[in-house]
Amino acid sequence: MSFNNVIYEDVVYICNELGEKLRKAEGSTWLISGGGGFIGGYFLDILDYCNRYIFKKPCRVICLENFISGIPERISHLGDNRNFKFLNRDVAKPFSIRGKVDYIVHAASIASPTFYRKYPIETIETNVTGLKNLMDLGVKKKVKSFLFFSTSEIYGNPDPKWIPTPENYNGNVSCTGPRACYDESKRLGETLCVNYHSQYDLPVKVVRPFNVFGPGLRIDDKRVIPDFFNNALNGRKIEILSNGSPTRSFCYISDAMCGFMSAILSDCNGEAFNIGNDQLEVSMIGLAKAVAKTVGGTDVEYKQSSDINYLVDNPQRRCPDLTKARKLLGYEPKIDLDKALRRTMEWYRKAYQFEGGVRNENFHYRNWICWPCFRCVPCT
């Protein structure tokens, strides 16, 4: 599941879109948790591209990763890069970092509902204890900016009057349901952020991603788009585990990364931003048909999940109000769903070596292989 030309093209697009905004980061030191994951990997690749083609003085990048959901292959191309340092760390446990740190990105998290329900305590610890550890470090190092990845899940199942959903909607969230370990720990994380900003003047920004997908999102992640592609590319029918009516507005990763980078490089301290795509709200049956069309020769069927909690507290609609991000960050999503699905399919075909309906099976969700040796269990 390595870096390939699809991700490289995305990175070039992102850097061209951000333009002069990136100059603020020149010569700085970045600490990124979860750098081997879907979103964290893009941060590493963007900074590497900037070092190679944009900056005169390169960035130094420190990646904290324990590969509970990320995998080594995604960032193995950076292994010999002298500007990158990789540390096998669980951010929920005490750790120390030598030298200066200018920017901190807390992208480590278990974000798939299937897996955060399976590992609820680890999910809470990463989103709360891990966040506090990183913010304490940020205060100590007097960082220039801190970015916390929250989620659109903090809104729960919004009242239809609040869709599209703005940042000032307080949410309709269960604190005891099967999704609460993720939803409520992200909400508490945001509470920590605003209080560290007010008490310690930590220059923190919060982003709330709305259904971001694309290259780098594991095909065994169990979220809906990789699940649909996993079915279709393996020559199976696409399985819909609901009645097909819930809707989402999906956002391609390169659009989302422009929003995330704009947020951390901005002066909007203490603020939270929706980052997503408000151009199209699509139903699950509509999405299944779109994936089927993209792959070709695939049918769609309805099935009942074996997980009795699969649909509990599942929002019926999700669509962001992007007014604030447009005004303060200049954020504007541009990539439509059809193009985003085509690019995602291209990456899945290359990364998972799909040939004639057969794929490489060497990738597993809990891949306890440490980087960079690829042989042993995680280093202590």
Automatic annotation (TrEMBL):
Matches recorded under Pfam families: Epimerase
GO biological process, alphabetically ordered: D-xylose metabolic process
Entry cofactors: NAD(+)
GO molecular function: NAD+ binding; UDP-glucuronate decarboxylase activity
Keyword Lyase: yes
EC code: 4.1.1.35
InterPro entries: Epimerase_deHydtase, NAD(P)-bd_dom_sf, UXS-like
Keywords per UniProt: Decarboxylase, Lyase, NAD
Domain of life where this protein originates: Bacteria
Transmembrane segments: none
GO cellular component, one term: cytoplasm
Domain NAD-dependent epimerase/dehydratase: 30-276
Enzyme class: lyase
Protein name per the record: UDP-glucuronate decarboxylase
Organism: Pseudobacteroides cellulosolvens ATCC 35603 = DSM 2933
